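During the reporting period the student researcher (J.K.) took over the structure-prediction task from the postdoctoral fellow and processed the backlog of single-chain submissions. One of the processed entries is reproduced below for the supervisory committee.
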Amino acid sequence: MFRHRIVVTGGGTGGHIYPALAVCDILKDDPDLEALLYVGSQGHLEEKLVTERKISFFGVAIRGLPRKISLDLFSWILEFAQAVRQVRDLLRRYRPTVVLGTGGYASAPALVAALSLGVPISMHESDAHPGLVTKSLAQYATLISLGMDGALARIKKCRGKIFVNGNPVSQKFANPLRRDSAAAVLGLDPAAKTILITGGSQGAQAINEAVFGALPILLALNPPVQVVHQVGNKNYQAFRDRLPQDIANNKQYVLRAYFDDLSSVYAITDLAVCRSGAITIAELAVTGTPALFIPLPTAAANHQMMNARSVEAKGAAFVLPQDTLTGDVLAQKIASLIGKEDELKAMREKMHTIGKPRAAADLVDQIKEVSAAYQMRKQRDAQEASSA
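J.K. obtained the following structure tokens:
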């Protein structure tokens, strides 16, 4: 029986952080775990979410790589080298048996530091288009976990095993609240059709503007519908101040800056209007929530549009390109879908078939195997050294 000392690292955006947290939530209750540490970017979202879970956190001063040759790039190289030195010193004291990276610039120092010390690294890539950290370090990874099978052809070099696990999501999504309980949390009617509209954790200005124009139409529909709108922290006050009083005070409309736990909202959602990032799709799939996707047009390699079209082809979603988005168009599209119960039911069933609720648990099992193999090798090396 081996005891595992595991470092998890990832950050920069929710797409890198939330899979790491889903893995941590399982690991921290694992009887074979000896120690768990999260390495991320100091002062960013991952620090807040990790410390809330009472998991040890080590923050490094790191930012995204400048993409143009400049003095800023030279400064970044020095910052990155310093971050790697700091994490390497930490790992020497911590003695990890495996390091798992979930991507983003915040994961690079810990992964590079681990490799320099001979500690095996495992990597999880959420998107169909692997990010810079994955593309740069995949050839050195003992294990690579993929959230989407489309990434498989884009991993050019890998000496280790590759698994298409799906994207890890919190177990709260796999075991949601009852609809009536979720409705009570939000102050809504469990019998009414409910639409969730979100541009992600940061919000999306283009979506918010369309929602502003669509709300008078949506809230006048008969039968009535309910709208839950996550507007984003930076957008909340300005959006709230613009709303007419009859909409702001309408019990069918719930405006929030941010939900710490969207699983309770999904439990009452009949249709989600959202971006099409990999983690959003994983949450929708596990909960079986039909979607109207508005892909982020500036996403790298247009991967959000590719994600959205892939789900649409399976009959679980529709796609509304942002360049066609207006308040009237959004309201008409939602109204045309929300009243078709047979179509929504079929979309729910097809979305469920995409879901992989065991993704986090499978990845935990796999990194434990990497950790055990590393410890076996260390024991064998020690025995050979002592008998020499």
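The committee noted the following: The chain has two domains: 4-169+357-387, 172-354.
J.K. will present the remaining backlog at the next meeting.
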